[in-house]
Amino acid sequence: MERDPNYTLWNTKNVAVLADFNRILVDTIGTAVYRAANMPAGAKKFAATKANYTTEDNLYVLVQCTPDLSSSDCHQCLLAAYSGLEICCNEKRGGRILFPSCIVNFEMYINYNETYVEAAALAPPSPVPQGDKGSSKKTWIIIGATLSTIVGVLLFSSFAYTMWRRKKREEIRNSQVIQLLDMEGRTIEDDCSNEIMCGEVKSQDSLLIKLDIVLKATNQYSNENKLGQGGFGPVYK
After folding, report:
1. Does residue 125 have a cis bond before it (omega within 30 degrees)?
2. pTM for the complete prediction?
3. Which of 8, 25, 160, 219 is the most exposed place for a label (fewest CB within 10 A)?
4. pLDDT above 80 for 64
5. Could you give the CA distance from residue 97 to residue 76 in angstroms, rounded to a whole number?
6. Checking phi first, is residue 124 left (phi over 0); if not, alpha (psi -120 to 50) or beta?
7. Domains of the chain, residue spans
8. What is the pLDDT of residues 130-168, one digit of tens each?
9. Integer Cα distance of 70 and 68 in angstroms
10. What are the helix (H) ranges across 61-132?
11. Dihedral sign for Cα atoms in the order 162, 163, 166, 167
């Protein structure tokens, strides 16, 4: 809600009969302010009211707020504008104050189009836009299908990678056994007692390498084949 810059205008003539003028002005502006601030959602926040001042004169009041204001802000803006009118336009036949967010105007002559005001008062408020429920449902279905596809691809990829790693480890293990047998001058067919190469591994004992193969592979634990020393003992190539 904006109040600055603001502009104040007033009629240079004073009212002829002062009796009850201020009371009528306060009541008429108060009614207009209440109506404008409490317009239904989607309707324009303005109101025009008329009151009999004398047998010859009527008092016309017009108030309006910008559409972006809430009911509470509109009410506060109009009251602030009216407070400014009380200072500038006491006993005047007309006055108006313009804020960026609202205006208050009173005159002793009609200052608005009565036909337009009556039509606007009878017109239903603009409907509040509602979301398309059908489109929303379709969107959620698409999102769900996409997520399901992604999860399926990730699970399949994880399974495939696990199987590849397992196969790779078996190939490396078999390659090591073949190298040891070659060093001894034997082949896989000559040593089918090795369950790794001739069938399934049924126990941890089948993973043990014969001592004669180890001795030959390390050249009788020669220092020339020693790679280093670890926590579990020396390591040979």
Report:
1. no
2. 0.47
3. 160
4. yes
5. 14
6. beta
7. 7-122, 133-236
8. 555 556 677 778 888 888 888 888 888 888 888 888 887
9. 7
10. 71-88, 114-122
11. negative
